[in-house]
Structure formats: C-alpha cells, structure tokens
Design a protein that fits this description.
Layout: E1 3-7, H1 16-29, E2 34-38, H2 44-48, H3 60-65, H4 74-77, E3 87-89, H5 98-101, H6 111-117, E4 124-128, H7 135-143, E5 146-152, H8 161-172, E6 181-186, H9 193-206, H10 220-227, H11 231-234, H12 239-253
Parallel strand pairs: 1-4, 1-5, 2-3, 2-4, 5-6
Length: 254
C-alpha cells in the first residue's frame, strides 16, 4: 500500500508546493512510483507542470465527489506530465467548494484515505495541501502516514504552524493514533545570521521531529517553475536538487 505524505502548513509561500514537486521527483529518482495530488484550489503545482483546470475532464476534486470513494475513476483523474517523473492528480477550483458540497456527507473526513486505499498502486502519494482549514486539509491529515511541515526559516516561521497544530490536536482526539509529523526547514539563507537563529529555535522546538536536511535558498526553483519543469529536469546538479535528494533518502527510511 502507498505511503501517504501530506505536505501542509497553513502559512502560504513556505515551500509546500516546491516540496511536493521536488521531493516527488527525488523519490521517483530512487525508483519509487509516485503520485502527486494537487489539493490546493489555486492549483500552483498543476500550473507549474502546465496542467490547467479548463482542459480537464476530471481532477482531484472528483476523488472527494465520487458517490463511492472505493470506486473513484482514477484513470480519468491521473495525468502523466512529460516534464516530471511522477503522475499528477491535478487541482480544480471546485476543491474550494467541497466544504459546502460535503456538508451533510457522513464520514466526510475519511473519503481520501478510503479512495487512496482502493486506488492505483504507488509507493508514495504526496498531497500538496491548501493553506486554509477545511474538509480537504482534514482529509489529507487523516489520510497521511507522515505529515511534512515545511517551515520557512524566517522571523515569522512559527506563526502559521500554530493553526496547523490546533487542527492536528482536534483530529488526534478522534483518530486511532496521533498524526506523525516532521518539520522541514526551507528557504534557509546561510549568510543571514537571523536564519541561523531561527533554525536553532526550530531544532530546539521540534528536536527529533525535524528533518536533518535543510532546504536552502536556490533561485533555480523559481526558474524551474517558469520553465514548467521540476528542478531536477532543469538543473539536476543544483544545490536544491541535491538537498531534496537527501530529504528523499530520509523519507525513504522513515
Ligand atoms: N528553497 C527555495 N529557494 C528559493 N525559492 C524557493 C524555495 N522554495 C520555494 N521557493 C519559491 O518560493 C515561492 C513559494 O513557494 P511555494 O512552494 O509555492 O510555497 P507554498 O506552496 O507553501 O505556498 C515560489 O515562487 C517558489 O518557487
Ligand atoms: Mg502551494
């Protein structure tokens, strides 16, 4: 059964999408079969790979809307983008309406887990989560075997994380086992003393629940997004690609 990795932080711009795409590609390079699900209605991961909602017959939203989560038509949902070594379940703006659509649905928090358990065979499914609390984020957290929390190593690093921990605490009360998580320091600027202090703070707070790998600032990520590629395809030797390769090795043995 696939290992499900949710990538979430209620703060925007911390590297969630970059981590979903780049870690996904790094795991694929280790020979793993990888599916990336774009669960953010803004669809940045999909757009990054040149997939836009207008042209889609089905999207990640249909996984939640299927009458029977065990009978989702995954073949209609999944795309094989040429510019990335993994499969993609693209986003759709309808993801933003699911709180309304599923308002009265029984068991609405476990739809994604059920659908993935009955879904196609992958070694890893990476969930690029939306920044706001709602039924999609809850489904992703409930489905996850490991939650990866990218945290930008800046002054307000811990700001958005508080909301995420509130959501997790509420879920942990009803889940059979608490959600397993690891924090990932991102956009680390080795030349900035403030960044080093934030990293020390994160390490003292999260202790063993923090990845040893730190993702540094690398302009290649923005270039990759402009080129519609994952960074490994654009610049396989760049620092960022190397760091996500090390992260993949950590994730692979967790
Ligand atoms: N390590 C990094 N170094 C430099 N830029 C980065 C890095 N990680 C992400 N970015 C850039 O920062 C912006 C926000 O990242 P993104 O992954 O979209 O965040 P989120 O999904 O959390 O909103 C994007 O333009 C992305 O290319
Ligand atoms: Mg994003």
């Amino acid at each position: 059964m696939a290992r499900i990795l949710a990538i979430a932080n209620q703060k925007g711009g911390v590297g969630k999408t970059t981590t979903a795409l780049t870690l996904g590609a790094a795991l694929a390079r280790l020979g793993r079969r990888v599916l990336v699900m774009d669960l953010d209605p803004h669809g940045c991961a999909s757009a990054h790979l040149g997939v836009f909602p207008e042209g889609l017959t089905a999207s990640a939203a249909d996984v939640f809307l299927a009458e029977d989560p065990l009978a989702v038509d995954w073949s209609a949902v999944i795309r094989v983008p040429g510019q990335a070594p993994f499969d993609l379940a693209p986003s759709h703006t309808r993801l933003a309406d699911l709180d309304m659509d599923l308002k009265d649905r029984k068991g609405k928090g476990v739809l994604l887990r059920q659908a993935l358990d009955a879904g196609p065979a992958y070694d890893h499914v990476l969930l690029d989560c939306p920044p706001h609390t709602g039924v999609v984020l809850v489904n992703a957290l409930v489905a996850s075997d490991l939650l990866i929390i990218p945290i930008q190593t800046d002054f307000l690093a811990l700001h958005g994380v508080r909301h995420l921990f509130d959501t997790m605490r509420a879920l942990n009360r009803v889940l059979p086992r608490p959600i397993a998580y690891r924090a990932l320091a991102t956009m680390f600027d080795r030349r900035a003393r403030a960044c080093t202090r934030v990293l020390e703070l994160l390490r003292s707070k999260f202790k063993e629940r923090m990845f040893a790998t730190v993702i540094g600032l690398d302009t290649k990520f923005r270039e990759a997004s402009a080129a519609g590629k994952v960074v490994q395809e654009l610049a396989p030797e760049c620092r960022g690609a190397g760091e996500y390769a090390r992260l993949a090795e950590e994730v692979a043995v967790l």
